[in-house]
Amino acid sequence: MCSKYCITSIYSSENPIGVIKVLGYSSKFIKAQLSSFGSTVVDFSTTYILTSLVGLLYVVSSATGVVFGGIVNFLLGRYWVFNADKEKKSTQISKYILVWISSMLLNMGGIIFFTETIGLYYLISKVITSALVGFFFNYYLQKTFVFKTKK
Q1: Cβ atoms 122, 48 nearer than 8 A
Q2: pTM above 0.85, yes or no
Q3: 78 with 72: CB under 8 angstroms?
Q4: What's the gap between Cα 100 and its chain centre?
Q5: CA 139, CA 103: separation in Å to the nearest integer?
Q6: Which of 7, 53, 68, 107 is the most buried (most CB within 10 A)?
Q7: Contacts of 83 (CB under 8 A, 6+ apart)
């Protein structure tokens, strides 16, 4: 018998192909984290390039990175993570933009706080803020609001 801290496969009549659980988390959560990671790579790369190589202010670069990463995240969420491509795209986009703007504001506030108040390097501030907003805000709202599918 396996505890919740191992890889298991769970089969049911509603899910005949099974749901893989890793460390007690569903495959949807794992896929969301992989999607978030990929989007974060796009976001951070854009932020770094625009700040360090182009010379833009870190807040402007970070906002641009969030936009590019957000587009990648929406597409992965709709088609891969939540398999919600049968739902109305315009409704999802509207909901995503609402959550995304809120997320961007939380990210900007966090980055400014950690950089200006605490004195951390802007990329360290971005890592901390992105992790907090991603785990405690984005995943929950994408799952229950943006990409919620009809049963």
Answers
A1: no
A2: no
A3: no
A4: 10
A5: 11
A6: 107
A7: 149
Query: How is the chain split into domains, by residue range?
Result: 28-146
For residues 126-149, b (16+ Cβ closer than 10 Å) or e, as one string? bbbbbeebbeeebbebbbeebbee
Look at residues 111, 141, 148 and name the one whose alpha carbon lies nearest to residue 36.
141
pLDDT digits (tens, 9 = 90+) for 44-86: 899 999 999 999 999 999 989 989 998 999 999 999 999 999 9
Q: Hey, what are 31's tokens?
A: 């896929």
Give which of 13, 31, 14 is closest to 22, Cα–Cα. Answer: 31
